[in-house]
Design a protein that fits this description.
Layout lengths: L1 H5 L2 H17 L29 H17 L7
């Protein structure tokens, strides 16, 4: 949710690139994320793991972080 507040796909992309490099540096090659669900139920206990309730925003931020994660340590799309 913290990244979603900025509403900035480029910021999310940069975060994804950094996180991907850090994970690969410690040997992690597979990440089961990010959470791409929309908040539709206020009682759901994983709200903090999402990008929010706006489908357009969630789509753009999820796309940015997935592309960055797949790009590898070079930051370029694989």
């Amino acid at each position: 949710m913290g990244l979603a507040v900025a509403r900035d796909p480029e910021l999310v992309r940069q975060f994804g690139q950094i996180a991907a490099r850090e994970l690969r540096a410690i040997g992690i090659q597979c990440l089961l994320g990010p959470m791409a669900d929309l908040i539709t139920e206020p009682r759901w206990n994983r709200i903090g793991s999402t990008f929010g309730e706006d489908p357009t925003l969630v789509t753009s931020l999820t796309k940015a972080i997935v592309e960055a994660s797949r790009a590898g340590s070079s930051g370029r799309q694989a």
